[in-house]
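Single Cache domain-containing protein, pasting as requested.
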Amino acid sequence: MLSLLSLAAVGALLLHQSRQLAEQQVALLEERLYAAHRAELKHYVELALAAIRPLYESGRDDAATREQAKALLAGLDYGDDGYFFAYDTGGNSLVHPRKPELVGHNLWALTDPHGRQVIQALLHTARRGDGFARYEWEKPSTGKLTGKLGYVVHLPRWDWMIGTGVYLDDVEREISASRAKTRARIDATLGGVAALGLCVLLLVLASAVALNVAERRRTASRLGARARRLLDAQEAERSRIAAALRDGLGQRLEAARIALEHAAARDDGAALAASHSALLAALDDTHRLAQTLQPAALDAETLAEAIARAARDAETAHGVHVTVDNRLGRFAPQAPQALALSRLAGDALALVAVREGTRAASVELHEDGGTLCLTVRGHGGANRGERSDEALLQALRDRAEPLGGRVASTASRDGAAIAIRLPATAPRSAAPEAR
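Structure tokens follow.
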């Protein structure tokens, strides 16, 4: 939305500046057109003066000479509305080829619709010497009063004013046509810019959608991979529990059943006592298996016991000597963290113990500024490079990350080490872990 508003603001600014530029160009063109027409009028008057110059400079002031000069001026024209006029300083019309009925009449008091005294203003301009004046006059080709730009000069020896002019509606038509062309050109340019901007916006939106879709796919792929790992871990756990029940607890219970049957048949007290002990051991195994699956809430003491039990299990399962250095003291993390930590310790011990040639392992546990630090090291052994090791390491990360933890591993010729850092306080979204 912000991008659309920014694009609209830029477009509005560009439109405003383009309109300003168009008006500046039209104003410049108008100035040039008027300058061209002023130069043209001045040139026409110079041509008229050149036509009558031999008579004017002959030194004759008789009526015949002046009538000959009037005839020359009346015969000069350029187009339907281009002609020359002449007045004496008293306001009497001497030459007017488009309205000959005015010749001989005194137009001193003539005014245009705006109240300007036309002939007096022209005479004043001619005497002053700047030459140009604006007024309204009937246009011959239309018969309507139209604005006109006139240029006049004074002939002092004959006391005449001669001049010509251009009707301003022709100039305005040229300016309007130029203004329309300029605006059309600018509108076409703005249309191209707008189309380009729209294409860029659509491209950006398409890219954003594509990135969003790709990110969703990557997220779905990661979630799918994590779900598959979770299912694999659950299957592995079920297999482990089934093996424990079948190979351990099941065999003990079967042996106790057979012993009890024999003892009952012989009424043998010693055999009964042995069967009783076997049943107690089976019950202990049952309790230990249940504790592994879902231990009770752990405090500082039971957490230490859980880690010690994980060390004993690793010794039994893998035949390695495990030492535990627990420096938590009375520090007790929250239940989800303690439960995750006990399981992380067991899984990390299993991971380092399976390295070929591992002779011993150590577990170090301490607290650092509200963070639980667990380090499991295997001494000796070579990494087998099996994919199952990577799966176990990823399972550690999957268990630690939801609780805000991090897992790092290193391996060398001296052994493997797994460092786990876990906040002592569970995030609000973390629930007690069940397995």
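Note for the archive: The radius of gyration is 56 Å.
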